[in-house]
């Protein structure tokens, strides 16, 4: 017999998948203690179907940074010039005539407070403009070169300011490799995938690895070169079952000491295009109070979403976790809206 709670979640999910925008979807909800679980798929997606994590990959990058800090191998206060060559960095952040490039810290990157522009969305040669029509490789130096052509939005660490930009996490990925002596894929395996016993979660390194397709509106597109290139900011692949294991571990203290969240939960609102989303130390925060929920919500969602429709959030007020994917990259707000509606249904 289905509970009223289950029926509420099913109603939200069904209403979402009735949209012409959604062709495939998977949702998994679990309580923190494991006493409640609800899973539903649509369009052939199931609990073990692989999907692109996209920017949820940033949580994996955050995890590695926090573990390396715990091991005393780096500090969030370190200037990134300690790990990245000055020739590479110089000129990446010139704001109002002053070059802040060599003053950037790991914390600036993790909290999205560097002020660096986002090459994924900004400029006539933005990645988002190109990926609809073509698949292509790019490497770290390509991203650095592109970012240097764009204007930063504010000086690093400006109080109350945050700007979401993939380059912040691309640089963090390079730092992880430098400090750990491992490729990013192997660092993920060592610090996250192997300890959690994940079998279907990985960072693809070649086109021989299985890379899922994604919808752009009604068109199915396949972009293996882009996914392989996205690495630390958005290249990961997982399933609903394994992403649930990860997000519970991330917030539950199984990967690093969760006391660190007291210093990571300093949130700043992101740029207007990101809607209600704020950013803390390596993860998103979505306040559920106020006008965004018609004053019906309580608490917050913490975790991450991805531009291809993926989501992994913890709702502390009800001790619930929401993970899944709506597989649609034409509207990045979809997974946020679904997660918020699920939280409101949890009353």
TrEMBL record:
Q: What is this protein called?
A: Serine hydrolase
Molecular function in Gene Ontology: hydrolase activity
Occurrences of domain Beta-lactamase-related (ranges): 48-342
Q: Name the InterPro entries on file.
A: Beta-lactam-related (IPR001466), Beta-lactam/transpept-like (IPR012338), Diverse_Enzym_Activities (IPR050789)
Q: Which UniProt keywords apply?
A: Hydrolase
């Amino acid at each position: 017999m289905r509970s009223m709670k289950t029926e509420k979640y099913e109603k939200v999910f069904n209403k979402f998948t009735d949209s012409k925008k959604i062709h495939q979807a998977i949702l998994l909800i679990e309580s923190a203690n494991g006493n409640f679980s609800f899973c539903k798929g649509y369009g052939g997606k199931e609990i073990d179907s692989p999907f692109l994590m996209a920017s949820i990959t940033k949580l994996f990058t955050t995890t590695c940074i926090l573990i390396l800090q715990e091991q005393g191998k780096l500090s969030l206060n370190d200037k990134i010039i300690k790990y990245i060559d000055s020739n590479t960095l110089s000129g990446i952040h010139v704001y109002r005539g002053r070059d802040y490039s060599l003053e950037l810290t790991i914390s600036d990157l993790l909290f999205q407070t560097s002020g660096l522009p986002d090459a994924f969305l900004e400029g006539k040669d933005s990645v988002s403009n190109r990926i609809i029509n073509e698949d292509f490789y790019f490497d770290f130096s390509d991203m650095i070169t592109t970012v240097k052509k764009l204007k930063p939005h504010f000086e690093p660490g400006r109080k109350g300011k945050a700007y979401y930009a993939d380059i912040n996490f691309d640089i963090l990925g390079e730092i992880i490799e430098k400090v750990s002596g491992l490729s990013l894929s192997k660092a993920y395996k060592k610090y996250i995938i192997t300890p959690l016993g994940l079998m279907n979660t990985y960072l693809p390194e070649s086109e021989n690895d299985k890379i899922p397709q994604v919808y752009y509106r009604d068109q199915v597109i396949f972009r293996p070169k882009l996914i392989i290139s996205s690495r630390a900011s958005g290249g990961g692949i997982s399933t609903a079952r394994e992403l649930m294991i990860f997000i519970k571990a991330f917030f539950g203290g199984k990967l690093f000491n969760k006391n660190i969240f007291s210093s990571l939960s300093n949130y700043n609102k992101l740029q207007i295009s990101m809607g209600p989303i704020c950013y803390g130390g390596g993860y998103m925060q979505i306040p559920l109070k106020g006008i965004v929920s018609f004053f019906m919500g309580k608490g917050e969602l913490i975790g991450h979403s991805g531009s291809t429709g993926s989501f992994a959030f913890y709702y502390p007020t009800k001790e619930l976790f929401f993970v899944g994917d709506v597989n649609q990259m034409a509207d990045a707000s979809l997974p946020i809206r679904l997660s918020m509606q699920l939280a409101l249904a949890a009353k």
